[in-house]
Amino acid sequence: MNKMMNSLILKAALVGFSLFGLASTASAAAKVMNPGEAVGQLVYLSVDDVKNETAKYKNLNPLSIPVFAEMPLDMSVVAGAVTLKQQNLLSHVQLKSRARHTPNLDISELEGGWDNPLFSRFGDGAWVRMVLGADQSILIEPATEAQATEFYNKKKNTVVKLQSDVQTNTIFRTEDLRSEDFIRVGSKAANYGELARALNSASRTVVRPGFGIPFYYYQEFIDTNPKIKAAINSILRDPLMNRVAKVSYREEKLKALQDLMLSEESVVNEQLVDDLISRFEQFKVGGVPRNMKLRSSTNSEDLPNFNGAGLYTSESYKPAKKGKEKSMDKKRESLKEALRIVWSSVWNLRAFDERSYFRIPHADVRMGIQVNPSFSTEEADGVVVTKNMSGDSRYPGYGVYIEVQRGDIHSVANPETGVKPQKVLVLVDENDPLNQSKYDVKVLQNSNIADDNEAILPHDNPVPVITIDEIKDLTFQSLKAQQHLKPVLDPENEKFSLDLEFKVDSGDTGSRQVYLKQARPYID
């Protein structure tokens, strides 16, 4: 009876009515970002815990329900999440929660924060059941560790089967890549090729040219370095790697493997390095070779129920320093280092734990690489989803949702405390989606970053991050990409939408222009 009363009182406090004389002090303050159910252990993490990644922060696991006093730059696999800081719809915590189908609660406006009755009756380390409803209902009640373990085991997904071709050793040009090449270079690189095919024309480049490095060279790297191969096999055979709570043990083993892969003693195919540098030399500014971005493109990303966003590491190849071209030996060192960094990220802790949660077999993961020229004069960076996900009841109907920030210092996906992106909803005629004259642009929020792209203002900046014309162009290009990619990636899905990353840059043309740099199916 007491357990039932506690649950009822908590629900009453949150929906704003009194129960047995208990008045609400938290009316309409907590916000359900992602509905769902979790059974786990509450872990209260201070600003210091998050910023300095203390042992308490690092030991979060799939049985944890962290309560973050500060927004984390990366959220490991957890049962659910609660934040004391305001979240964006496209923030890292929310995207991860949606992808994992785990509950996520924003209590930034809840009076008293974690001292509110919603949490104060549960101490740090308490085991609870948290149920968040799509109707904004919230239930938190006592539970046990055994119940949490049972809930986790029941929730496990079916084993995913991965595909890869490790025989093809061709370095692909972006314009030659098609969706079916995902088994050779990974979905990110293959989708990038399709994006270029859909949007580029003789008069304009919307998707920068580049290359796709196939799985062959990752597998070759493993096979020609016996110590690395032995360490991988040891990890795959180790039963302790599958123990949910053994976070520090997994981290230690995986770091040792990554150190082997990152070592200058690890052998990289010299012919590959020569081939890539000769191709990269085609891209120059003022006679100096450009930096090239090497982006991870595994066969364990952009799957039907798993996008793998943010799991792996991208790195830059830098052929010049302070505007002066490096020697060939230094160029080769820079490229080898970049290749090792991207390849080794297959075995970082966050990727390993995420794959375990979704039952993706580690032994079958392969790393391809998407390469394109880096953006050097970046005016804006953001994310666009080709659906109306604003949550604003004033603007129903079909639309495109955008979050964008000035420059490249402040992230949309990992917002810092007090930093606001520009949020935009573009309402679109569903029967005529490429007709820009019918686009109805709604600026829902302005950025509070100064015109220098760096300083955080105490008020909103009235100057928009991107202009109305850029918003309409971005919407047009995104919907054009969707029309091309839907029949290629998921023809039977009537609710198909895209999650795209974009930049506004003036380096190539001398004036601001929208570029798309990634497209993946949006998992809702």
What does the secondary structure layout of this molecule look like, with pairings?
Elements: H1 2-15, E1 31-34, E2 36-45, H2 47-51, H3 55-58, E3 64-68, E4 81-83, H4 92-100, E5 104-106, H5 117-120, E6 127-132, E7 138-142, H6 145-155, E8 172-173, H7 182-185, H8 187-199, E9 211-213, H9 215-223, H10 226-237, H11 247-262, H12 270-280, E10 284-285, E11 288-289, E12 292-298, E13 315-317, E14 320-321, E15 324-325, H13 328-344, H14 349-357, E16 367-373, E17 378-385, E18 399-406, E19 422-427, E20 440-445, H15 468-489, E21 498-505, E22 513-521
Parallel strand pairs: 2-3, 3-4, 4-5
Antiparallel strand pairs: 1-5, 2-6, 6-7, 8-9, 9-16, 10-11, 12-13, 12-16, 14-15, 17-18, 17-21, 18-19, 19-20, 21-22
Helix pairs in contact: 8-15, 10-11, 11-13
| Strand residues, percent | 15-25%
Overall 3D shape: globular
**Largest sheet properties:** 7 strands, mixed
Mean pLDDT reading = 90
What is the tally of beta strands?
22
Helix % is 25-40%
CATH architecture type of the largest domain? 2-Layer Sandwich
**Superfamily (CATH H level) name of the largest domain:** ATP-grasp fold, A domain
Low-confidence stretches: 1-28
Number of helices: 15
